[in-house]
Amino acid sequence: MASPIVQTDPRPATVLQVLPRLQSGGVERTAVDVAAALVAAGCRAIVVSAGGQMVHELTRVGAEHIQLPVESKSPWTIWRNISRLADLIKAENVDIVHARSRAPAWSAYFAARRTGRPFVTTVAFNSAKRKINRFKKFYSSIMARGDLVIANSYYTAENVRANFGVPDVRVRVIPRGINLDIFDPAAVSPERIIQLAQAWRLDAGVPVVMMPARITRAKGHATLIQAMAQVARPGVQCLMVGTDGGKEDLRQELEKLATECGVGGTVRFVGDCRDMAAAYMLADVVVSASTEPESFGRTLVEAQAMGRVVVATDHGGARETVVEGQSGWLVPPGDVMEMANALRTALVLPAAVRAAMGAKAQARARQLYAKEAMTGATLAVYNELLAGRPV
After folding, report:
1. CB-side exposure of 197: number of CA atoms within 13 Å?
2. 192 and 172, same domain (yes or no)
3. Cβ atoms 269, 240 nearer than 8 A
4. H/E run at residue 279
5. pLDDT the model gives residue 131
6. 208 and 318 housed in the same domain
7. In which domain, by residue range, is 67 found?
8. In terms of domains, do 147 and 210 share one?
9. For all residues of the chain together, what is the average pLDDT?
10. pLDDT on residue 1
11. Considering only CA atoms, which of 25, 18, 20, 24 is closest in space to residue 298?
12. Are residues 362 and 379 in the same domain?
């Protein structure tokens, strides 16, 4: 259950979350989940964004949405948004301002300071994945200016400390949570699994290696394709699940690579999927092959919650979410042969051994990454800010 929010006066506390859009993705999902927890705790939840398909979901849980152009990176728009947000904070008696992305954080920070409200940030980007110039580092530094800074993994927390000098006393690690009512094998009907298998034209009993990831170079699709060529196991299907986001040229390049590697009939790009819980049930092994470290890795946690074994690259947040040899395997980034070896190991496991590993993975995911744990910890951060705020 959500933690009760400390009250500073007779009215319910009001928390304002600010993010670019409510379209889709982990940041958006977390914002909606926290808003729902606030409402359940008897508080008022307001989200400011430029809108998107998840606005209806937000309002359905009892939260409020206000549309402003906070997705813009234009300095002029960011400057104008300061006054807009400051006026909103005063008009709606906002108690806490919570920024979840860099562009809106600049406006939200100065609006919070102008109105004397506590300011908290959630950092979910990887500030160490590439060398950044001074301007980009300055632009990102706004996320380190929170009175408290929430990091979505210990890996992210270390980056925040190392790159932006945030002291430990201001950092709170709250891993991203998943909805265990959705990502629960018992909640997925056979009909849903059959329907998806038919849509993807999968034969019954065919081993499936699945990589759920949008198509970008950093996700490592090429590494998995080359590894599948080394596995050389007949009858295996490798499904690339995820949108190309308009990067049709890259998808075609990867399809060509699969053909050149002799696995054109094995590797298939099936596009986006709206029923990932059922998709995971079709997989024998779920892969994350990112070539750059990711701050958390939501799909790895979802897959393990569904009892699937995983193979992931050994860096970033994956080191926290995957236990080597117990819930899956970690391989060096970009190492085709090690990826292939891990896949071979996973695919030849006796069904009982794989099921036992999947059960351990599921138990750990349920213990550490439940949505309720994430929302409860976030409300506890709000409590800290409210309790320390002068009345």
Report:
1. 17
2. no
3. yes
4. helix 276-282
5. 57
6. yes
7. 14-177+370-387
8. no
9. 91
10. 45
11. 25
12. no
120 and 243 assigned to the same domain:
no
Whether residue 5 is contained in a domain is answered as no
**How many alpha carbons lie under 13 Å from residue 303 in its C-beta half-sphere?**
29
| CA 63 – CA 44 distance, rounded (Å) | 7
Is residue 165 over pLDDT 60? yes
User: Do 230 and 141 have their domain in common?
Assistant: no
Residues 20 and 86 in one domain: yes
pLDDT, position 90:
97
The string of pLDDT tens digits covering residues 39-78 is 999 999 999 999 998 999 999 999 999 999 999 999 999 9
**Measured between alpha carbons, how far is 104 from 256 in angstroms, rounded to an integer?**
40
Using CB atoms within 10 Å of the CB of residue 210, give its burial: 0 to 12 exposed, 13 to 18 middle, 19+ buried. Answer: buried
Residue 235 confidence (pLDDT) above 90: no
- Exposed / middle / buried, residue 253 (Cβ in 10 Å: 0-12, 13-18, 19+): middle
E strands, the chain, are 14-18, 44-49, 64-67, 96-99, 119-123, 148-151, 171-173, 208-212, 237-241, 267-271, 285-288, 309-313, 328-331
Give residues with Cβ within 8 angstroms of 172, minimum separation 6.
Answer: 148, 149, 150, 151, 377, 381
pLDDT at 7: 57
Residues 42, 70 contacting (CB under 8 angstroms): no
| Closest to 344 (Cα-Cα) out of 256, 233, 269, 243 | 233
Q: Select the highest-mean-pLDDT range: 202-206, 280-284, 349-353.
A: 280-284
CA dist 202 and 205 (Å) reads 9
352-389 in b/e burial notation, b at 16+ Cβ within 10 A?
Answer: eebeebbebbbebbbeebbbebbbbbbbebbebbbeee
Strands of 234-345 (E only): list them: 237-241, 267-271, 285-288, 309-313, 328-331
Residues 145 and 201 in one domain: no
**What is the number of domains present in the chain?**
2
